[in-house]
Write a sequence for this structure.
């Protein structure tokens, strides 16, 4: 003979079965995950994306102006960045822009005028506002650059990109 079934236990088991077999879109974990995904999408939409690149005209502690071109892919190099030089390295061209992740980024053509075949060098480009407050610090490096040759250096930063008029300071951190 079978034991009598407790009606409260049976009701509890039925409720658990109904909860376990309900459709996926009625489960709390789906809505929680969906809410988190929605917050991420809204955050990216409001803060993300790359800003239009800015055209810079740097000179060592000289003012440069950022502008927003009609097409972000058309970036003009600086007209006279040669005033940016340190320890025998001279900036030939310099373009500062957003890196696509919302941070400062830059591309530069830097000439080795040290008089020696330098194997590698590390650089820092400091972006300053009109009051000489640091806006961003970008770092880059070059390797296997013979005397008189030019290297393309990509500078990176974790500082958030902002458009405007900037001053620049170029520094050679190490050269060997």
């Amino acid at each position: 003979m079978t034991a009598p079934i407790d009606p409260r236990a049976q009701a509890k088991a039925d409720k658990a079965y109904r909860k376990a077999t309900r459709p996926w879109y009625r489960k709390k974990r789906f809505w929680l995950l969906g809410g988190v995904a929605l917050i991420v999408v809204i955050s990216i939409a409001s803060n993300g994306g790359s800003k239009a690149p800015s055209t810079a005209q740097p000179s060592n502690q000289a003012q440069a102006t950022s502008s927003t071109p009609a097409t972000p892919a058309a970036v003009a190099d600086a007209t006279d960045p040669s005033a940016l030089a340190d320890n025998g390295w001279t900036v030939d061209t310099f373009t500062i822009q957003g890196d696509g992740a919302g941070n400062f980024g830059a591309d530069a053509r830097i000439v080795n005028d040290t008089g020696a075949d330098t194997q590698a060098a590390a650089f820092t480009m400091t972006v300053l506002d009109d009051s000489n407050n640091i806006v961003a610090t970008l770092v880059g490096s070059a390797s296997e650059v013979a005397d008189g040759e030019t290297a393309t250096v990509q500078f990176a930063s974790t500082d958030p990109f902002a458009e405007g008029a900037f001053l620049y300071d170029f520094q050679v951190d190490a050269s060997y």
